[in-house]
Amino acid sequence: MTQYIIRRLIYSIFIIWGCATIVFFMLRLVPGDPVSAMLGIEYTPQAAAQLRKNLGLDKPIYVQYVTWMGDVLHGDLGKSIDTRQPVTDQIVSAFPKTLSITILGFIFGAVVAVPMGLLAALKRDSVFDWVASISTFIGISLPTFWFGIVFILIFAVEFRWFPSVGYVSPSDGIWPWFKHLILPGLAAGVGEAAILMRFVRAGLLEVLGSDYVRTARAKGLPERRVIMSHAMRNSMIPVVTVAGLSLAGLLGGLVITETVFAISGIGRLLTTAIFAKDYPIVQGVILLITLFFVMANLIVDILYTFLDPRIRYG
Amino acid sequence: MADQNSAEPIMARAMDVNVSADERLGRLTEQRTAEGSRFWRRIRAEKKAFLGLIFLVLLIFISLAGPWIAPYGADNVDFDQLAAPTLHHPMGTDSFGHDLFSRVILGTRVSFSVGIVGALLSMIVGVAGGVVAGYYGGWIDNLIMRIVDLIWAFPAIVLAMGLVSIYGAGVRNVIIAIAIANMVAYARIVRGDVLSLRESDFTVAARAIGVRDWRIMLRHLLPNVAAPIIVQMTLTVGFGILTETGLTFLGLGVNPATPTWGQALNESRNFIHQAWWLAVFPGIAIGFTVLSMNLLGDGLRDALDVRNVND
């Protein structure tokens, strides 16, 4: 198992290196001259030469590549063209907001999905199961950002329970911070809940049909114990995988949802940078999100081997 | 998906020396045509798939006949701006006085075609990559699958945004982004199946009588991996539509002058206090479309007995 984990780790490092390479070439793939694209109407030959020098674009491509990789390893992602601030600083100030919504959405999703999924499996083919199944289909068929808009309509515009947009730092009070995060968190949680519920239900149904559950029932264990201590435990294994992966998926979905709530997380940072053709920021944010994604995959894989001792990777 | 217990007659047919090599292979594929009619029977039996199929036909009709069904033209402007839904304007009007109902109908064609073309493109590239990787193995397999792993590492929407940031917004680039982000799923599914089919009797038989590689891949391997491809294709149309509406919502997708669902939702943010209909109806249109694709895909998965793609 240790060998598997080490191999998996090394492979992840390669993947991250590959992603960093792709992100490096992003700027070089911009059709025409990326420098004139970034400068836009402020273009003058002097400014272009200066920017080219700042970005290191005047050096041979292999020098650029080695410099970029070295800088990335040191956490230096260059400077924003727009604000002239280090990209890393901007990401560091934006990321906690995105992460808070991601975690909140994850919690909301899990709180709804796990009991609903279990109940749906236990009452298979009942009206409840049917309703739960339809809800999951609707949940995965609508974009997260649309749920955001609708929640604003209902809870902010109609009932005025929560603020519709913005973000407050937790240092200004936990409750105001939380109040601003509830709606985006809920919106993020809907899709999460839908996906998770399907897997909880399917996982429990599969385990309930297995031999050892039949044995447990046959030896006269109360149904409650059969489910709680025998079935549940094993049915949760696939759920961990989905949960881990959807945590990363949530982050991706938030890229758009943040715009709805005008929260200046990394999604907004990316969107505004794309409009401003601020490539260092675009590169930095994409690299960060990918890193998060790859790490989530890695952690899930490793957790899996601990959760299910039957799994042995060759 | 081939019958397991029919291996013996297959070999017998393939060995029949009285007919030409090509005809012998034709006989091998005969049973797949029989599977075709079973396919329809299974779909009818599967309620989800059937419902999804009906919705799909309806959506195709709306996309094709949109301009004739829509009560008003896309640019028809009424003095009644931001009017609540009435009989004249069943979904209300937007801030320019456009009839929202008409624009939602006309938006079907845009989103639907972007989703379908993106899914088709991703299928062609992904399936080709998967078949080649699985069939040849070795370094080709390694190379293709490492590229797949790399693309897989980027969340789809982020990949799409990255591409749009390089090449600019617009329908064509959104389609390319959808294609690239989704092709890896096909490659993974197809490669896995081809890997096991490569050693099957009918492939070995075909190779033994000297059928060329590309012909084996096209005529003998592809039909056998069709079921998971169809399922994935259906789901990809849904993903594609979500990606397109998301990008358009951000202003990074389809040209804002075109009536689209994403664009309508984008506008709804500015009038969220005055006009709930701007947010609700285009969202329902998106949900209905993606839902029908998901129902169809999920139903087909059950009907064709395809294992879960993400396992």
Keywords, separated by commas or semicolons:
heterodimer; A: 314 residues; mainly alpha; MetI-like fold; 2 domains; 12 helices; globular; B: 311 residues; 74% helix; 0% strand; elongated; disordered N terminus
In short:
The complex is a heterodimer of chains A (314) and B (311). Chain A has 314 residues and is mostly helical.
Characterise this structure.
The complex is a heterodimer of chains A (314) and B (311). Chain A is mainly α and 314 residues long. Chain A folds into 2 domains: 2-73, no CATH class; 88-307, MetI-like fold, CATH 1.10.3720. Chain A is built from 12 helices and no strands. Chain A has helices spanning 2-29, 34-39, 45-54, 61-73, 87-122, 127-141, 144-158, 174-208, 211-218, 223-260, 266-276, 279-307. In chain A, α11 (266-276) packs antiparallel against α12. Chain A is globular, with a radius of gyration of 24 Å. By secondary structure, chain B is an all-alpha fold. In chain B, α4 (100-136) crosses α10. Chain B is elongated and about 75 Å long. The model of chain B is unreliable at 1-15 (pLDDT under 50). Chain A binds chain B through residues 15-16, 18-19, 22-23, 26, 29-31, 137-138, 140-143, 145-146, 149-150, 152-153, 157, 164, 248-249, 251-253, 255-256, 259-260, 270-271, 273-275, 277, 279, 282, 286, 289-290, 293-294, 297, and chain B through 146, 149-150, 153-158, 161-162, 164-167, 238, 242, 245-246, 249-252, 265, 268-269, 272-273, 276, 279-280, 283, 286-287, 290-291, 294-295, 298.
